[in-house]
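TICKET: design request
STATUS: open
ATTACHED STRUCTURE:
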């Protein structure tokens, strides 16, 4: 579904991403892990159009999308959440999701308000629809972020640390939601996460980045046992 070919992103003299290649099969949850500063968010930004990779290619459903603008990539069916949530603070939750509904590739069959409300209900924010986004707490902001991504009707959903700051019950609920997106909505999920228990028990494959390079890729079991991965996280 999504393929990265030798993606490199330099900021000045630093290569935040260096020759990273990967292929994401359709319908799976694929985890992206690695220590802080490994280049995970940079890889997402390079895929989703936040910036152009310095070199390399991004192929989505067989077509090259390298360097396209964020809105064009979104209309092709890729949605992403941000590590630091960025809602339109002064707008209500319903309006925030409405912006995403209106920017869908497919024409909206129902009024945008109905479609936006349905999505809010799905993520558990039905009661907060008319609340200004700035009034939400951290967990609710993460749910809103997810609703905004889902409302564009993506086929590929990229999640950047949606579990940070959640307690174990909330993590369980969020993981159930992500599983449901794969199993019932048929979405492919590319998921950056530091909460290891959650990602290792949910993702079918894991890609590991370290210092801008792909360290390895495998099943959660293979990754958890790999010496290079343990070393990258824990040192000698
Ligand atoms: N816009 C930018 N300008 C300059 N340097 C950047 C920029 N974005 C990221 N970097 C640098 O690129 C490297 C990778 O950062 P990135 O945010 O991709 O890491 P990450 O794996 O997402 O880390 P974390 O787990 O802490 O979120 C870091 O050294 C970071 O400082
Ligand atoms: Mg990051």
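STATUS: resolved
RESOLUTION: sequence designed for all positions
ATTACHED SEQUENCE:
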């Amino acid at each position: 579904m999504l393929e990265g070919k030798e993606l490199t992103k330099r900021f000045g003299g630093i290569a935040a991403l260096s020759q990273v290649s990967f292929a994401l099969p359709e319908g799976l949850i694929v985890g992206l892990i690695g220590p802080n500063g490994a280049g995970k968010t940079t890889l997402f930004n390079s895929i989703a159009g936040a910036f152009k990779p310095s070199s390399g290619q991004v192929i989505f459903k067989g077509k090259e999308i390298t360097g396209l603008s964020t809105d064009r990539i979104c209309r092709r069916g890729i949605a992403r959440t941000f590590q630091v949530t960025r809602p339109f603070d002064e707008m209500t939750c319903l309006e925030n999701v409405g912006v995403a509904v209106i920017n869908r590739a497919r024409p909206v069959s129902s009024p945008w308000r109905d479609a936006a409300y349905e999505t809010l209900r799905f993520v558990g924010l039905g009661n907060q629809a008319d609340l200004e986004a700035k009034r939400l707490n951290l967990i609710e902001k993460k749910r809103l972020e997810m609703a905004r991504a889902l409302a564009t009707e993506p086929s590929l959903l990229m999640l950047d640390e949606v579990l940070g700051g959640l307690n174990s019950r909330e993590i369980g609920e969020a993981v159930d939601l992500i599983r449901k997106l794969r199993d019932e909505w048929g979405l492919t999920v590319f998921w950056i996460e530091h909460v290891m228990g959650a990602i290792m028990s949910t993702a079918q494959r894991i890609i590991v980045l370290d210092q801008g390079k792909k360290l390895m890729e495998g099943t959660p079991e293979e990754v958890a046992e790999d010496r290079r991965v343990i070393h990258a996280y824990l040192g000698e």
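CLOSING REMARK: The pocket of magnesium ion (ligand 2) is lined by residues 40-41, 83 (CB under 6 Å). Residues 6 and 19 are 4 Å apart (CA to CA).
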